């Protein structure tokens, strides 16, 4: 691909070019990090050099049970994710189907999406204590209102012609609701990647409270002893773990909904729209 092609509006690039650009971007970040620590542009105590962080990262495997901590964090996120889906998907479908349900629930749900979840942490500690239940409930609270908004939006995007056709053919209300679920679920599933990103963001905060295992606990324990090599290594481990789980969801979406193109929405701030082709498959 020539240089001029890189500046064409919305022109796709080859896989090789994408890989090369990704490697170049990360190489530039590491080089800037190395130079900043080598020239002492940043505080050397709080910003360790890349070599020290790489050594600490290897130590996380051998001395600090990295896989066990990652699994514990994932398990907390998975529980909150499951309960968010169990409640938000049927409630969101009802809100998208019956306007009175939307007008009843949305005045509470909409302000909750705008409030910082960190402000609720003391309340969750008071309600659930500082054990495992508090961490899962806190994560559920952070994920639920986002997913609910996505489900409502995707349900509203279901083409009215599908509903009218089903009703013309004699479908009952429960059949129409099932049709709306099938038509909107590809878009809802696409939001799961972002939902997991939210979970990985909040689990760090939850695990800083009376935790004995998890990546958040691992980073906080390193900070308390001022081991910033291990702090940065833990941050990198969190990023790698979150990326891998996100990638697994991307592969699952490609397998379940091959007519969609999830690779175009990896950096999207919201869930993708349900395409007309998705509606036809769901119908």
Summary?
Helices cover 75% and strands 0% of the residues.
Q: If you had to describe this structure to a student in words, what would you say it looks like?
A:
With 283 residues, the chain is mostly helical. The chain has 2 domains: 47 residues, no CATH class; 234 residues, MetI-like fold, CATH 1.10.3720.10. It is built from 12 helices and no strands. Helix 3 packs across helix 11, helix 6 crosses helix 7 and helix 10 runs antiparallel to helix 11. The protein is globular. The two termini are 41 Å apart. The C terminus is likely disordered.
What's the SSE blueprint?
Layout: H1 3-6, H2 15-38, H3 50-63, H4 66-97, H5 99-114, H6 121-128, H7 132-157, H8 160-168, H9 173-206, H10 215-224, H11 228-256, H12 276-282
């Amino acid at each position: 691909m020539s240089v001029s092609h890189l500046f064409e509006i919305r022109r796709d690039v080859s896989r090789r070019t994408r890989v090369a650009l990704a490697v170049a971007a990360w190489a530039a970040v590491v080089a800037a990090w190395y130079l900043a620590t080598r020239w002492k542009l940043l505080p050397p105590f709080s910003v360790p050099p890349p070599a020290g962080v790489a050594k600490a990262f290897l130590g996380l495997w051998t001395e600090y049970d990295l896989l066990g901590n990652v699994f514990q964090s994932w398990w907390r996120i998975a529980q909150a994710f499951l309960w968010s889906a169990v409640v938000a998907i049927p409630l969101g479908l009802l809100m998208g189907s019956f306007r009175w349900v939307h007008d009843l629930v949305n005045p509470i749900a909409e302000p909750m999406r705008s409030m910082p979840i960190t402000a609720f942490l003391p309340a969750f500690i008071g309600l659930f204590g500082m054990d495992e239940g508090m961490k899962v409930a806190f994560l559920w609270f952070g994920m639920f209102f986002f997913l609910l908004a996505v489900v409502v939006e995707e349900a509203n995007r279901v083409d009215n012609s599908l509903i009218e056709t089903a009703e013309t053919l004699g479908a009952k209300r429960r059949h129409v609701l099932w049709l709306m679920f099938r038509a909107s679920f590809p878009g809802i599933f696409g939001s799961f990647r972002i939902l997991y990103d939210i979970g990985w963001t909040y689990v760090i905060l939850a695990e800083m409270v009376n935790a004995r295992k998890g990546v958040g606990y691992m980073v906080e324990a390193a900070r308390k002893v001022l081991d910033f090599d291990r702090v940065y290594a833990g941050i990198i481990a969190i990023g790698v773990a979150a990326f891998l789980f996100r990638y697994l969801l991307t592969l699952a979406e490609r397998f379940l909904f091959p007519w969609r193109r999830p690779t175009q929405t990896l950096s999207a701030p919201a869930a993708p729209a349900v395409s007309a082709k998705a509606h036809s498959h769901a119908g």
